[in-house]
Write a structure and sequence with these properties.
Elements (H helix, E strand, L loop, with lengths): L9 H15 L2 H6 L4 H22 L4 H19 L6 H12 L4 H16 L7 H23 L4 H21 L1 H6 L7 H6 L7 H6 L3 H23 L8 H20 L12 H10 L4
Length: about 290
């Protein structure tokens, strides 16, 4: 990531980020269309920021280079909150940060989470470390998002806390094989040891006959977080939280399909059919 000067006004920067997200063809773009323009642009800028720091963590660069890239973003977040951003993304974030009370600590938490991936491959973290990782890379994004949606309440932060963890744990269970190919294993140490699975290289862990038991235990934790997120959602205004509700519904459906597939044929991908996504979009008023 190059933190070079970007001579764009905030409105030009928002337009550039909006075009970038739209061109990426991500379903995120369509899910955010339901928001008013200013809040939608805030979400696009938050998404672009997360993609930038995630790309650093997932790059093939040496760990020191990744650290330098992430440190550059820490300095850029400081510049954003000083009112002097220099990149297109942080220029796009300038007015949303002021208007929607986005918090510096949440941006920095996202960077800290990416650094956990960047400096060394995560392998069988303890439950506390995994929870911290989920809070940084997912729940912190949720805390930024609910403010962009227009709900800066304790209940909305509870949604971010639980839904972020539920989504990240679902991602972990969905991407076990892909992560192992990168030398990463996010299944927690306590669950593996509880099933008598030696903690070795990720590929050997995934071949262990007791793996399904550890995966089911983690899926149960994710399901509890989904339930807690739905309960917290009931204390929030419904309309601005529609994107969060829809995302929770889609990911809960992914988790159900993962459980039905089981944990022995990890090479069989789990996807949500377009018709099901359309149903959720209609149900939550995203179309």
């Amino acid at each position: 990531m190059s933190v070079a000067a970007a001579p764009l006004s905030p409105s030009e920067a928002r337009a550039a980020v909006r075009a970038r997200v739209e061109a990426a063809g991500t379903s995120f773009y369509w899910a955010m269309r339901v928001l008013p323009e200013a809040r939608r642009d805030a979400m696009f800028a938050i998404y672009a920021f997360c993609r930038e720091v995630d790309d650093i963590a997932d790059s093939a660069d040496p760990a020191d280079a990744k650290r330098r890239g992430l440190d550059g973003w820490r300095r850029e977040i400081d510049a954003l909150f000083a009112g002097k951003p220099t990149t297109t993304i942080t220029r796009a974030l300038l007015e949303p940060t002021r208007d929607f009370a986005l918090r510096r600590e949440d941006f920095l938490a996202v960077i800290d989470g990416m650094e956990m991936d960047a400096v060394a491959d995560i392998r069988a973290p303890g439950m506390a470390e995994l929870d911290l990782y989920c809070d940084r890379v997912a729940s912190a994004v949720g805390r930024l998002s609910v403010r962009a949606f227009g709900v800066a309440s304790t209940a909305a932060d509870r949604v971010a806390y639980s839904l972020g963890r539920a989504l990240q744990l679902t991602n972990i269970l969905r991407d076990l094989l892909e992560d192992a190919e990168r030398g990463r294993l996010y299944l927690p140490q306590e669950l593996l040891e509880g099933e008598g699975i030696p903690i070795g290289d990720p590929a050997s862990v995934l071949r262990h006959p007791a793996l399904p038991l550890a995966c089911e235990a983690l899926a149960e934790i994710a399901e509890r977080h989904f339930a807690e997120a739905r309960a917290a959602m009931r204390a929030c205004p419904r309309k601005p939280m529609r994107p969060a509700a829809a995302m929770g519904a889609v990911y809960a459906a992914i988790l159900r399909r993962l459980k039905r597939r089981g944990w022995r044929r990890l090479d069989r991908p789990v996807r949500i059919p377009s018709a099901v996504k359309l149903f959720f979009a209609l149900r939550y008023g995203l179309l």
